[in-house]
Specification:
The complex is a heterotrimer of chains A (281), B (460) and C (216). Chain B is α/β, with parallel strands linked by helices and 460 residues long. Chain B has helices spanning 2-12, 29-38, 40-57, 59-69, 204-226, 235-250, 266-285, 296-312, 331-345, 359-369, 384-390, 399-408, 411-443, 448-459; strands at residues 80-83, 91-96, 107-114, 125-131, 154-159, 172-180, 183-186, 190-192, 254-257, 289-293, 324-326, 349-353, 373-378, 393-396. In chain C, α5 (141-156) crosses α7 (167-203). The interface between B and C is large, with 81 and 62 residues.
Chain lengths: 281, 460, 216
């Protein structure tokens, strides 16, 4: 077996080690490279900026702990932005396994910004049914969520004054890690109840949502950790996403180097095989 | 350096060996000034021309200034209020004629009050305000067959919600006001009551296209019953037998997954249909079949399908209820469990059919590390790169739906496939024509292609 | 009996399929109300279906423990984990925290579920690298084009890539917005037509293998 062939069949644990180091070292020693703002992230930011004080902003945290590293920084930035703009925030989740995490993030950011539950924001929690919950909210928000996550009746909450259904929402953003997520909010929410919709998702899902963005079905998209980092820069409050961008840069570069190397070894082994077959003939 | 060069050009225009203005194609300001004294008549004519042009091109601005300062603001004309057609009874629409003063500086207000008698329209509630050069009928989502007025008219649809409550059957007064600075001019209010409708005529295009496509499918099925239709090879499906054969030779089980969605999703139904064929072959070869599930109803349906397949293969005694089993509906817990099954039981063939999310690569890469032959079929386009990279064969997009036709060769299935192809050809044709028309419109700066493109947009 | 297993479900499928296809074209509140009611039924059926799944899970793992199959210890861990979490969930009223204090259920959620799920998702990065190294080869001209596009997008999506090759950011945007979106639309059109065709077949009873295979 030639060197190139041996390298092509390298133990995958070595690759795992390379990726591990490329993630760890930049996290320990950050460089802080400049981050350019993409138009899709700016779309969400600009829309929130354009909303007048007291507008209703709905944030659906449709993810579970697995997607926390990517979607949690997005949630924090969006909540900070909405609270800073003095919007009325309605938060919920369509993923049962994300309920506790969603409650933590909403409560934590609200406390940081000095906001009061029931007056400035409400966390509705989770309700069974997935996409059916969106339809129910479109018909009657109080029927879908008679009480908030803490058991307080939603009817009579000052934050929900004048809000009867999804038709009263000025802007909704779904941070989705799968189904139900951004697409479900478009099909069962925006399309039926006519509110403006933005999206956020994991990096691996982002390319799949570009057709929605291009056709105007969503007015902006925050994709993965990169999108979260851009949003942190836009609201001028750097956090975990910006810190993680160096690690992401290094891993991307490592994968590119690995792909280039594997192709070099592949061509080398193919040339050797061709030469051997020619000399054999 | 640049500045020096420019002043040099200005200063040397008279002494240059080139004709005046040669360098830039236009006369320089210095040259014009010099000529003014050489030819006073020419200068006068030029000034006259300039003033005429200026007076023409700036006339709207002067007119606007005139509106802003002198003439009283006219109220909007031809205001019509009516119940929005094709809705659920929670909106009213108001339409009015465009005005000569329509611009960003002037604004329109939509005013609302309950009941028919309005003593003073100025006391009505302002429910919307926007610049006067916005909200035209042509910008609305109404297709041409339901448009209540020509495209150049203004329109505003007032919906229930965001501080406005419109009750079905209640009469409301609505009007429009023109606003400029502190001045407001209000039109006479019109009355209408929102009523729910039973048919949404705006979506009739969708219904027609669905019926057309349904008709094509039925026609294609009829054709397939009369004569044989050619089906191109789908290597992934040809490999099903090979995979099951290999599992039999090695005495190892087959692992089959139906994806992340429930039975309401067509991709899961397609996966369940293919499971029937795979289970039949597995029964014939007496090979173990493992089907871990994320959704209990899908599990119950797949149990029935597997049982039927074993019955059809003549091996009902080999059927085990436990071959279909539920793990969890949680994405990564399911993935961890299936990865564990792959590493412990080392199945010889893995089938990934249906819809997948981020778990796709975690499953297929683990499967690849055990040396199993892997066949995937998915409509989750965002996971396709991972399947293509790690699986031996991948059914892409609608190939998953075509699988049952390919495996059974029944006229109904094959005809449906042909129907889909005709549908695709139609869409492709329209796309091609649309692209050509849009390009021609830009090339020749013509308006007529827009008529066709608007038609396509409405019918889509 | 055969009616309940065959004709009955087909009839239900035909009626509900046509009614709910028509519902899309009826904006009347009554039609919306019907849709809401049916989605509630679905939620209830989904709840009962979970019993079906959990009983299957218990049955499979009980059999493993009884037969002392290889790895039966894991089945035992499953029983302990599942029953323990259910008990703590009831005890904590299903809440991870009450008045800012973490409950026992919250402890399981925060210190077991969150890191375990995070770990599973994080493995993706390692698997992407190993799968790319093993399979991402320029075997043909098409594969080479794919390879170049992938490198540009990977460069353009991170600050380091944009720093090293400034144009990579714009290029990757163009690839994602134009090439990627167009190709995905093409796949989506195909998938949608396939979905509509399959739905038509199911509604009119031409496709019935999902009911348990076999032809009448």
């Amino acid at each position: 077996m030639t060197f190139a062939e041996r390298m092509l069949k390298i133990d995958r644990r070595i690759i795992f080690l390379v990726i591990g180091l490329c993630t760890l070292i930049p996290l320990l020693y950050p460089v802080g490279l400049p981050i350019k703002i993409s138009p899709e992230v700016r779309g969400v930011y600009d829309h929130i900026e354009s909303l007048p004080e007291g507008s209703v902003f709905l944030l659906s945290l449709d993810f579970d702990p697995a997607s926390k590293p990517e979607l949690m920084p997005q949630s924090i930035s969006l909540l900070r932005h909405a609270f800073r703009k003095k919007l009325r925030v309605i938060a919920l989740t369509l993923w049962v396994s994300g309920t506790g995490m969603a409650d933590q993030v909403v409560t934590q950011v609200a406390r940081e910004m000095g906001k009061e539950s029931g007056k400035d924001y409400v966390f509705l929690g989770w309700s069974p049914g997935g996409t059916a919950v969106i339809i129910n909210m479109g018909q009657d928000l109080y029927g879908a969520f008679p009480a908030d996550y803490n058991g307080k009746p939603t009817k009579g909450l000052s934050v929900l004054q004048g809000v009867a259904s999804l038709r009263d929402v000025n802007y909704a953003v779904s941070l989705g890690a799968g189904n139900p997520g951004v697409e479900a909010w478009y099909v069962f929410g925006k399309d039926k109840y006519k509110f403006e919709l933005g999206g956020g998702c994991t990096g691996v899902m982002a390319p799949g949502l570009y057709p929605l963005l291009r056709s105007g079905q969503i007015n902006g998209l925050i994709g993965g950790l990169r999108g979260a980092a851009e949003y942190e820069i836009l609201i001028d409050q750097k956090g975990k996403a910006v810190a993680g961008m160096d690690a992401q840069s290094a891993t991307h570069l490592a994968i590119i180097v690995l792909v280039v190397l594997c192709n070099l070894f592949y061509f080398a082994s193919r040339n050797i095989a061709r030469r051997q077959s020619q000399s054999g003939a | 350096m640049l500045k020096t060069s420019a002043s040099f050009v200005l200063g040397s225009s008279k002494s240059s060996t080139y004709p005046r203005g040669y360098a830039s194609g236009f006369d320089s300001p210095a040259a014009l000034l010099n000529r003014r004294f050489e030819h006073p008549a020419l200068w006068k004519a030029l000034m006259l021309l300039l003033m005429t042009v200026l007076s023409q091109s700036w006339s709207p601005v002067f007119a606007q200034t005139d509106i802003q300062t002198k003439t009283p603001l006219a109220p909007p004309q031809d205001v019509r209020v009516f119940d929005t057609p094709s809705d659920g009874g929670d909106s009213l629409t108001v339409i009015w004629a465009p005005a000569p003063y329509d611009s960003a500086a002037v604004r329109y207000q939509v005013l609302l009050s309950e009941g028919t008698s309005v003593a003073d329209p100025a006391t009505m509630k302002v429910v919307a305000e926007f610049p006067a050069n916005q909200r035209y009928v042509r910008e609305s989502k109404w297709p041409w067959w339901t448009r209540p007025a020509t495209g150049d008219q203004h329109q505003y649809t007032l919906r229930s919600g965001r501080g406005v409550e419109l009750k079905s059957g209640t009469l409301y007064s609505i009007t429009v006001a023109t606003v400029l600075n502190d001045e407001r001019s209000i039109a006479a209010p019109g009355q209408a009551a929102p009523e729910p409708n039973w048919i949404n005529w705006n979506q009739m295009n969708n219904l027609l296209l669905a019926l057309l496509f349904g008709g094509i499918v039925f026609y294609a099925i009829g054709t397939a019953r009369k004569r044989e239709i050619f089906l191109r090879r789908i290597p992934g499906l040809d490999a099903v037998d090979e995979a099951i054969g290999r599992a039999t030779e090695l005495g190892k089980p087959i692992l089959y997954m139906t994806g992340a969605h429930d039975m309401s999703d067509p991709s899961t139904i397609a996966a369940a249909v293919i499971l029937g064929r795979v289970a039949k072959r597995a029964a014939a070869y007496e090979t173990d079949l493992l089907v871990p599930h994320r959704e209990p109803i899908t599990m119950a349906v797949c149990q029935e399908i597997t049982k039927q397949a074993y019955l059809e293969a003549g091996k009902p005694d080999l059927y085990k209820d436990d071959s279909n089993f539920f793990i969890t509906s949680d994405q990564f817990s399911y993935t961890a469990a299936v990865d564990g099954i792959m590493l412990r039981k080392k199945p010889a063939a893995n089938f990934f059919m249906g819809h997948y999310f981020a778990e796709a690569l975690l499953l297929t890469e683990t499967g690849a590390s055990t040396g199993a032959i892997q066949i995937a079929g998915t409509d989750s386009d965002h996971q396709l790169p991972f399947f293509v990279t790690t699986c031996d064969y991948t059914l892409i997009g609608e190939e998953l739906y075509a699988a049952s036709a390919y495996l059974s060769r029944e006229p109904v299935q094959v005809g449906t496939l042909r129907g889909q192809d005709i549908g695709k050809a139609l869409i492709l044709g329209v796309l091609g024509i649309g692209t050509i028309l849009a390009t021609l419109g830009i090339l020749f700066d013509a308006q007529w292609p827009k008529l066709f493109l608007d038609f396509f947009r409405d019918v889509k | 009996m055969i009616f309940l297993r065959r004709q009955g479900p087909l009839l239900v499928t035909l009626i509900t399929g046509l009614v709910f296809a028509a519902q899309y074209y009826v904006p009347h509140p009554a039609s919306e109300q019907m849709l809401t009611s049916v989605t509630k039924w679905l939620q209830i059926i989904g709840g009962f279906a979970l019993v079906l799944g959990v009983s299957s899970l218990f049955h499979v793992h009980a059999a493993k423990i009884r037969r002392k199959e290889a790895g039966w210890g894991y089945s035992f861990v499953l029983y302990v984990g599942m029953l323990g979490t259910i008990a703590l969930g009831f005890w904590s009223n299903g809440k991870e925290a009450i008045d800012g204090t973490m409950t026992a259920f919250g402890w399981i959620y925060n210190y077991m579920m969150v890191p375990l799920q995070g770990t599973m998702f994080a493995i993706l990065a390692f698997f992407i690298a190993s799968a790319a190294y093993r399979s991402f080869r320029a075997r043909s001209r098409e594969a080479a084009v794919l390879l170049i596009a992938a490198v540009i997008v990977m460069m353009g999506r991170v600050p380091l890539g944009e720093y090293l090759i400034p144009i990579s950011g714009d290029l990757s945007q163009w690839i994602l917005n134009v090439l990627n979106a167009s190709v995905r639309r093409a796949i989506l059109i195909g998938v949608s037509l396939g979905t509509v065709a399959l739905s038509i077949k199911i509604i009119f009873g031409m496709e019935r293998s999902y009911l348990g295979g076999g032809k009448e």
